[in-house]
Amino acid sequence: MPIGAQDHLDELYAKQRLLSDEAARLEIERDRLDPDGLEANAYYILEIEIAALRQEASRIASRISDVLERDLER
Asked: What is the spatial distance between Cα 74 and Cα 72, in angstroms, rounded to a whole number?
């Protein structure tokens, strides 16, 4: 694997880890809220933020897979 590709992969893995860690942190915060009470709006917003973070982490995982697949083809 070329050195530049490894640096790119390292960056992608770091971003994916950052997004996953933040989603996990927000899940803990969300779980402390009452989804049916006064905190329902905050719960809802956190649900959306978590889903967006997970979706972006998944998108990055696909990019990582593409980079690795291209490397195998070389």
From this structure: 5
Dihedral sign for Cα 50, 56, 58, 60, please: negative
At 64 the pLDDT is: 94
Secondary structure, 3-state, 32-60: CCCCCCCCHHHHHHHHHHHHHHHHHHHHH
Is the model's pLDDT at 1 over the cut of 70? no
Separation between Cα atoms, residue 11 and residue 30, nearest integer Å: 28
Which positions ≥6 away from 38 have C-beta within 8 Å?
A: none
Is the predicted pLDDT of residue 4 greater than 60, yes or no? Answer: no
- Residues 23-58 pLDDT 10s: 999 999 999 999 999 999 999 999 999 999 999 999
